[in-house]
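Hi everyone,

Forwarding the result from last night's run.
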Amino acid sequence: MNVFYNQIIKRGYLIKTILLGSLLIVVNCATIDVSTLKTTDLDKERLQGFDEKNLTAQGKVGILLKQSVNPKITFPGKEKLLDAESRKLVEAIGGAEIVYAQKDWDVLFKKSEEQVKKYLAEMKLAFQTGTNFKAKKIETKYDSWYQISVDVIDLGWDVREGTKRDKDGNQIQYWKLNTLTTLALTITQTDPGQDSKVLLIKNITNKFNKTFPKPPEQGAVLKGVEEGVYYSFEDALPVLQEVFPINSKLLELREEKGYARILGGKKLGLVVGREFDILDRGEIVTVAGTSDIFHPIGKIKLFQVDDAYSWGEISGDKEIIKIGIDLKSKPQEMGIFGIAWRFIKSRLGITSDRKEA
């Protein structure tokens, strides 16, 4: 065993790492057997008029992915790395169709824009001639149209030599890799027939470092830089999920409203641990009439995710919670276990297992 790992053991890092890893495994493996959950009379309460038939988890959402890399960045294979991680990022949003080529997007958009213009022209003519105009839903390719731009504006790294003393007071030498990655995210809504609206402009910066017991070879440095890029894209996911939440419905209750089955699963990118706000619907009176308002009365944390449905544990005001109530996903924050896993990987030299898109 080399000097580096001897120092890890002496400082107790390895023990802490193993304990954190074990705790992470236990928490992630613990689950609930749905077949043992009982349905009580309380679990049969439904919202008036709620019908589970013909429910859809999401409307039709189209996203054009655009990406670029600062030409001053010299990292080898930067375009390929950006393309693979950008695709994984937007595909993880859930419930959207991703378009990767501008020309394909333009064809779809032009066709839908022509439908919108035709509808508006018919409506204008009806008003001008005083004839009866029958409003109808305009059938376009998507209900909502968005462009997401992912731009790597900074990617830098260096390796610095240093010394420190171990537990016994001996001086040891080390080399530390420091990386800095900055992504720029821009989300624009571009519905046909309407002005484009910028929904988000945000820079996401991630610093990553890794210590080596000897001067690292170029391959090890590049692996470390890639790891920093991966972390930046991981940090970008909750930002996108805030703009693109998954809307759902509560479909089934068990154990006196302690557990619930909801609409939506793996096909929408849901994973164990994802949380949903449980929303109580109300009305507010405005000058234009009445409109729906929602406020959270509890939450559901998923413990089982299937293709089209998921199961979760409920917390909150169970008197109001009934079958058919509205749900809205919360961003998937990393949490303490995700941070601990990053620490473990950094300490033990584990790199992410990324498959090419």
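The chain has two domains: 31-57+246-357, 59-244.

Cheers,
N.
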